[in-house]
């Protein structure tokens, strides 16, 4: 069972930074990240993962100044490179958007990270979904979803071509012959596409992993197709076992038309966790966290999913009927859930935000309960492993490493030590042959 | 006297990788870079510097496969971040081109490096000068020189504005008040320029240095103006004391019209070195290196500066008169020097490339001779310090650290330990106040 951890500073709970157990300045502390990466490595995780949005909010600051996710963060590539030296085994994955960068720069930086980490780099390919990010890059708003994915596809395939610029043994460094590289083993890219034109060779040799691992988390039709064609790790975010199974089957089936085997791609199911020694302790901690939510944040948060502004409403009264919109434009399920709590349970605004949990519900439970759930999903064909998030960091991860990992090992679901030296080895992903080399069992192209 | 070292793997001599003392795979070895940075730090250098061109050659490979500079390198930002953890004091500077990146990404990555290194980041702003690099980024060729510098100016000023997005004390992280940052201390950038449009806030707080240090090495009129307006370190590359003095005076005089003090910018004179225990040893090592140059490289090298193709000519005969072009288009001084050696000294092609040294001649000498030259230039008003390159690395740097540094210390020209904790402190550069804060002695803008 593959395990990744999504590291978002103080934790995935929106009020986590207010909990005394967390370090409020974690998001920009390299020491905090080094310690957290070391912890994940002690837990024999496959992947340490940093998500990203290249932007900070500039509006609704009454709420966002109290719920600071992604407002103030280290940039993923520089952060992961810094962690390469303080870790030895764990994979180092980070997000970079195909909407706001140049393929040559992305190809170089992830290749460089793969060399620096001796084969542990992974790139999470995202198209980004925020207009406020687009405005940092010369655009009024994001291009439409389909266009973003068309660009992403061209981008990824171009980056992969750049990674194959040099055959694995191109740099002979033969002092007797005075030859640093064999010119016949350089294969410049000549790409003229709809979004990019690149004519050149990458200025870094092929990497320890052959190519850094490609991650994606697209859920839409276009997202799944891109994943089926190019991804090697996919983060899924279905909330039920059945939904996750269906996603898993769907994605693996799509791969055949791209000439890929199901095993060339690992699906890691997103799993938000809150682990405690007893079920009661878990509930107590959850309640503590919910009560740390500032009313402004609660209102903003609900308002986002109810798709209306609630900032002027009193906290201790129900939402007036006329303030509830007719229907949702974005997240129908979230919307309906809030409307139910407001209309049927007649909760006040305060009761509502204390009760409401956005999106996927956190699994709260004992180490045994958590292990049971992971085993159920893994053995039930819902995934090849998990992308874990923890309400509190690094506390949640520490509990998991200390209490759940041993249980998973006992059940034969997890390694007892790292056997390989690269992220591909950990995940059981083959090292891709260079497309310019006709190898046994691999066709040249 | 400020000291920087330009680290280009095996050394600045074109045949350095063939010398048995160097490590042929240095350019992609993170271990090699860690050791070299540690050495420079033992020598109390201010700055460890990585130059860059975002491209590998794809033509003339008969020569370039034997002279591999920049064909296969770690990318500067990922490399420097990785070095932040293995060093504690030395500044970490790297090149990024304003012709091929997005200001928001550059602002973030250098800000992140400044946080990760606790105040040691520096960005060398270049416009790039290679068409083969432009072809990696959708262009047929580079825009004209003036246009590149206009873009560079807009780029740098925009990055500096992004670095001032947040006041130094914006992130209060006040748990009692539930306030992560003070919204009044966020100052989004609203920029609509000729080359860039950016509306947003940087998603990382102001850095330990206030802003990373800006380096430039432009020599042209446009380059000097940009430096006078924005740079805090300038690498000069004059070959004579007099020329260097004139450059120094010229640059510092230009600063007044931008409201800057001469001391706000440090000029580091480029100084290529080959240090040995005796003058004879230095000459011997130089001769050894010259003889390691492969004839294909010698021919290509001469051909580049003579601005003609010499690849078909026999090595042991003079260059036929009719193959010498009428005049130079690029480097008149280099061209004239070669023509002189060919016509007047009547050297054969082989003798010529063994004799010829491109550009600035390497200072070869004993530790005492090197210290004398540095003192002469420094005390003579030619510079505020030096950007050193060594024919062989890390050997040359090791000799310098072991033998020249103590002599400079004895003369009172160098520190005996690091006193400050940031690159700005080492260089005696003030920490720039945030433009949005009216401070004593600093005007708001
Ligand atoms: C575990 C996980 C991590 C993600 N990380 C990022 C991220 O770092 N940056 C980002 O812009 N989107 C991120 N996403 C969003 C996805 O890339 C994707 O945009 C989203 O799931 C919607 O799917 P679609 O793009 O196919 O519409 C993440 C999603 C998941 C499930
Ligand atoms: C010490 C030194 C380091 C330099 N590093 C780079 C570099 O890393 N990348 C680059 O493209 N140019 C580099 N340059 C070139 C300068 O940025 C500049 O383009 C050149 O000196 C010509 O000046 P001009 O641009 O004003 O015409 C360097 C120059 C010097 C002297």
Automatic annotation (TrEMBL), chains A, B:
- Pfam families under this entry? Bac_luciferase (PF00296)
Q: Which CDD domains match?
A: Nitrilotriacetate_monoxgenase
- Secretion signal: which residues? none
Any idea where the Luciferase-like domain is? 24-381
Which GO-annotated molecular functions does the record name?
monooxygenase activity; oxidoreductase activity, acting on paired donors, with incorporation or reduction of molecular oxygen
Q: Where does FMN bind?
A: 52, 95, 145, 149, 220
- Entry keyword set: Flavoprotein, FMN, Monooxygenase, Oxidoreductase
Per its UniProt record, what SUPFAM superfamilies does this chain match? Bacterial luciferase-like
Q: Which superkingdom, per the lineage?
A: Bacteria
Q: NCBIfam families from the entry?
A: FMN_nitrolo (TIGR03860)
Please give the family membership noted in the entry: Belongs to the NtaA/SnaA/DszA monooxygenase family.
PANTHER family to which the protein is assigned, alphabetical: ALKANESULFONATE MONOOXYGENASE-RELATED, C2H2 FINGER DOMAIN TRANSCRIPTION FACTOR (EUROFUNG)-RELATED
Recorded protein name is LLM class flavin-dependent oxidoreductase
Native source species: Teichococcus coralli
Show the taxonomic lineage.
Bacteria, Pseudomonadati, Pseudomonadota, Alphaproteobacteria, Acetobacterales
């Amino acid at each position: 069972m593959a395990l990744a951890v999504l590291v978002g500073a103080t934790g995935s709970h929106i009020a986590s930074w207010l909990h005394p157990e967390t370090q409020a300045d974690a998001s920009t502390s390299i020491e905090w990240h080094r310690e957290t990466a070391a912890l994940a490595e002690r837990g024999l995780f496959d992947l340490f993962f940093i998500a990203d949005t290249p932007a900070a909010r500039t509006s609704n600051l009454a709420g966002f100044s109290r719920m600071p996710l992604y407002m103030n963060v280290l940039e993923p590539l520089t952060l992961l490179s810094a962690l390469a030296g303080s870790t030895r085994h764990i994979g180092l994955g980070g997000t970079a958007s195909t909407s706001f960068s140049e393929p040559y720069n992305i190809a170089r930086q992830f290749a460089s990270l793969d060399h620096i980490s001796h084969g542990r780099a992974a790139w999470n390919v995202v198209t980004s979904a925020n207009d406020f990010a687009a405005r940092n890059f010369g655009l009024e708003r994001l291009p439409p979803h389909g266009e973003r994915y068309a660009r992403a596809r061209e981008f990824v395939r171009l980056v992969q071509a750049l990674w194959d610029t040099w055959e694995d043994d191109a740099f002979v460094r033969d002092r007797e012959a005075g030859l640093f590289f064999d010119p016949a083993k350089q294969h410049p890219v000549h790409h003229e596409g709809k979004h990019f034109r690149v004519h050149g060779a990458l200025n870094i040799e092929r990497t320890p992993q052959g190519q850094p691992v490609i991650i994606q988390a697209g859920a839409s039709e276009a997202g799944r197709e891109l994943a089926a064609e190019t991804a090697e790790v996919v983060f899924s975010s279905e909330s039920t076992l059945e939904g996750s199974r269906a996603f898993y089957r769907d994605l693996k089936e799509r791969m055949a038309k791209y000439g890929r085997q199901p095993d060339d791609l690992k699906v890691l199911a997103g799993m938000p966790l809150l682990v405690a020694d007893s079920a009661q302790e878990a509930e107590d901690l959850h309640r503590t966290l919910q009560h740390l939510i500032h009313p402004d944040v609660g209102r903003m948060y609900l308002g986002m999913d109810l798709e209306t502004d609630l900032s002027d409403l009193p906290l201790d009264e129900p939402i007036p009927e006329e303030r509830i919109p007719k229907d949702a434009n974005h997240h129908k399920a979230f919307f309906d859930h809030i409307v139910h709590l407001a209309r049927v349970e007649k909760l006040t605004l305060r009761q509502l935000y204390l009760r409401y949990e956005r999106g996927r519900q956190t699994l709260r439970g004992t180490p045994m309960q958590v292990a049971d759930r992971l085993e159920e999903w893994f053995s039930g064909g819902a995934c090849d492993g998990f992308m874990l998030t923890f309400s509190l960091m690094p506390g949640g991860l520490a509990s998991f490493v200390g209490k759940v990992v041993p249980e998973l090992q006992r059940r034969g679901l997890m390694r007892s030590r790292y056997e390989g030296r690269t992220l591909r080895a950990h995940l059981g992903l083959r090292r891709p042959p260079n497309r310019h080399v006709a190898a046994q069992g691999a066709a040249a192209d």
